[in-house]
Amino acid sequence: MRLTAFASLIVLLPSALAAQSGAAANAVDQTIRRAQAAWADVRTLRATFEQSITNPITGSAMLARGELQQQKPNMLAINFSDPAGDAIVADGKHVWIYIPSATPGQVVKMTNAQAGAPNTDLIGQFLDTPRDAYDATDAGVDTVSGRAARVVILTAKPGQQLPFIRAKVWVDAKDGLIRRFESTDPSGISRSVRLLALKPNAAVEKSAFVFKVPKGARVVTP
Fold first, then answer.
1. Which residues contact 64 (CB under 8 A, 6 or more apart)?
2. In CATH, which of 2.50.20.10, 3.60.40.10, 3.40.50.150, 3.30.450.40 is domain 42-210?
């Protein structure tokens, strides 16, 4: 009888583990769907942010703060207070990158496709990506600015051309919005962003999405 019971346990154990694994996968997908639904209801966005970017090729790291305004589908204005004067503006057709703190007197002008999702839709880049293009795992619970959040890790599947090869996102437990993320792009550059004073569907300034080339600056295109 004991051997029979033990044998039954051996048979049942893989099934139990598979059920647990399936439940975890369902929980992750539910978190992603909540975030997608919450983001679908957002038409405009205003927020302050803190950002750090690390480039393993050059060994450089940059810390920044500022404010962003967004109007879907493809208009985004990022104005930095530190370094003051730096700006990235997506006007719906082109993305203008002006970083006088690093390259004074130069403006980079790119198409939306050239600039990529990280420069046109910070949050949407994770939620507009086809679900079958990446694997997702649960990373537990955490807090962002005192708010409870569920953490999910996204890993691009081999052969997929995505804005990220790996990302860690914090999904607000109450409203489903992403309030923090860490991502690594295909070139190996990593970015960590924490969104503060997040205001979905807030009034935005139309003038924010119009970039005026500073006098004397040189415009370059890729």
1. 50, 51, 52, 53, 80, 82, 83, 86
2. 2.50.20.10
